[in-house]
Specification:
mainly beta, elongated
Amino acid sequence: MAHYAFLDENNIVTEVIVGKDETDTSQDWEQFYGEFRNQVCKRTSYNNNIRKNYAGIGYTYDSQRDAFIPPQPFPSWLLSQETCQWSAPIAMPTEGFYDWDETTTSWVRASA
């Protein structure tokens, strides 16, 4: 069993489906599903071994990186070129619970 993501005209994921496994080589399944739905279709993987990240609705497919990139959680966060994941510009403290404060671009202790 494999998973496939459908993309809109801006390469944004609109839907993810379960489809034929890649071991079934009787078809190019990305092409098959894409033609069937008249949308670009890209395979994705739960264990992130295909296209960096498992696709989700709202993710962007970057063809240069051949990767699915999640939505940016905050404007100040930076994209890792290696993992295609977003991270805060400063590391979160390791003790306690914190929330990101975009106004101050810092971590603030979460209230109990």
